[in-house]
Amino acid sequence: MKCPFCNQENTRVIDSRPVPDNNSIRRRRQCDECGKRFTTYEKIETIPLTVIKKDQSREQYERRKIQDGITRACYKRPVSVERIESLMDEIETEVFN
User: Fold this and answer.
1) What is the pTM of this model?
2) CA 85, CA 95: separation in Å to the nearest integer?
């Protein structure tokens, strides 16, 4: 990481903390050359997921479509919205891994 003050590449991390949105990390850094401190935010880069359909057409993944299908399948069944949400989280974790 380059120092924004002196453009030297020798910086070290003093403190790391997750940001409340859970998608980034706040790092407090100090330059070894000039001694000044600065903060960086590192965000996780996600690769857009593409779904290949039966007719071989491709489209962007949409969580809402799978959730709508599960909701329709659970219609008139004793399945809570919270359970559907947790199931969606499990499916997405498995697919993205």
Assistant:
1) 0.49
2) 15
Burial of residue 30 (CB within 10 Å: 0-12, 13-18, 19+) is: middle
Beta-bridged to residue 38, according to DSSP, are: 29
Give burial (CB, 10 Å; 0-12/13-18/19+) of 38.
middle
Query: Among 42, 12, 37, which residue's Cα sits nearest to residue 26?
Result: 42
Which of 39, 24, 29 lies closest to 9 in space, CA to CA?
A: 29
The pLDDT score that the predictor gives to residue 15 is 93
pLDDT digits (tens, 9 = 90+) for 12-39: 999 999 887 667 899 999 999 999 999 9
